[in-house]
């Protein structure tokens, strides 16, 4: 029998400190929620936030005053270059199935269990 997922609970041995946020590319509808989430994680939760390198080059975000204020606190990575295996406590995806598949591909060569929300 497969246990009912609603009865399962994730317990942290210590509070998470680092998060990777991946958002759907070319979808402007997630830009403001992405920005707001990043600000909240940095300022309210005092977390270390990783984002894709290309996020720091997006014109719309670079013109956003709120994003300008926090962009220097973000850590960027490049797919295929940087190994995030031991650096990320959990991942937040803002997108659909394709975004989730992309994120899972970043960690295919590891036995490390990545928590994706």
From TrEMBL:
Tell me which EC number(s) this protein carries. Answer: 2.7.1.23
Biological process according to GO? NADP+ biosynthetic process
Name the InterPro entries on file.
ATP-NAD_kinase_N, NAD/diacylglycerol_kinase_sf, NADK
A GO molecular-function descriptor: NAD+ kinase activity
Identify its protein family: Belongs to the NAD kinase family.
Q: Under what name is this protein listed?
A: NAD(+) kinase
Which organism is this protein's natural source? Candidula unifasciata
